[in-house]
Amino acid sequence: MKIYTVVSLAALAVLIAVASGTASVADNVSNGTTTCNVVGTNYELDSWSNEQYPVIDLFEEKYVPLFSRDDDIWDAHVNKLASLILDSNETHTLKPGENVDLGNGYTLDVREIDIEGENVWLELTRSGQHVANKTVSIDTDDNKTWTVILDDVQGESNVVVMKVHVKQLFVGAESSIVWIDGIWLIDYANARTLNIGDKLGEFTLKEIINGVDESNLGSLVFENASSSDNTSVADHASLDDDALISDSPASPSPEKGQVKFTDKNAGSPTSWYWNFLKYVTIKSKEIF
Predict the structure, then answer these.
(1) What is the per-residue burial (b if ≥16 Cβ within 10 Å, else e) of 227-240?
(2) Phi/psi at 12 (nearest 5 deg)?
(3) Residues 223, 224, 225, 227: is their CA dihedral positive or negative?
(4) Are 164 and 135 in contact (CB under 8 A)?
(5) Separation CA 81–CA 103 (nearest Å)
(6) Mutual orientation of helices 2-31 and 271-287 as an angle, nearest 10°?
């Protein structure tokens, strides 16, 4: 009899512990907040494997917090965001006068190749307008990377907006060729600054937490107005002019799905535990 009593008590203890854990999850959901953390991400190009850049996932859309070339990764501006256009290790073989369409109106042009000087003249343009240019030398590994730095991006200076890696130069019988095997680019021209109270769909920015070290790069905390009434919330809210509003939430995107937040307190989240406990108790009595 004592053995079965011990078994019953042990089962009760386990069920209470599990029920307690379920209740805490319910409290977290009913709290109605979502925390989006900044994480360090490796570049696709192996030559940049010793570096990382910050990325924050806002409801399955990735953005890059603006960061300076001279700062640590946790010093990135958590609430000043640009979408990531390209992070690629694809090799492009180009002649002078040719270019790479980077997307969103950005273009990387090859202006000149100087084989004797071991350098290539590159230019970044946007919508046909000059942005930056540099003569990239390939005499050392460090010089093979062109890091494009711009000022006045959402009020910030020395912001890294693009990285280009030149692998090699080649001269043929009729023309010269450059191999570019790494390109990283953010849409700095359409960057956005989020402030407390701004809304992404029905998510309202509640708190901005700056990074402190490599294990804590910062985060954005959002409050979900629909977490307690089972209403649908727009998924994948993007940082465009229509989404960042102060008075009313944006309509759900017709092209993307919806996320439903359910009030876990509705009904009894632990009823099946008690039914199971009742079953165990009955079986114990039958044995006795």
Answers:
(1) bbeeeebbbbbbbe
(2) -60, -45
(3) negative
(4) no
(5) 18
(6) 180
Tokens representing 79 are 């609430």
Order of strands, sheet of 119-126, starting from the edge strand that comes earlier in the sequence: 99-103, 106-114, 119-126, 129-137
Query: d(Cα 135, Cα 56) in Å, to the nearest integer?
Result: 33
pTM, two decimals, is 0.70
Amino acid at 70: D
Tens of pLDDT along the chain (288 residues) come to 444 444 344 444 433 343 433 332 223 333 688 999 999 999 999 999 999 999 999 988 899 999 998 889 999 999 999 999 999 999 999 999 999 999 999 999 999 999 888 999 999 999 999 999 999 999 888 899 999 999 999 999 999 999 999 999 988 777 899 999 999 999 999 999 999 999 988 899 999 999 999 889 999 999 986 654 433 333 445 565 544 433 333 333 333 333 332 233 333 333 333 344 444 344 444 444
Only one residue has tokens 């958590």, namely 78
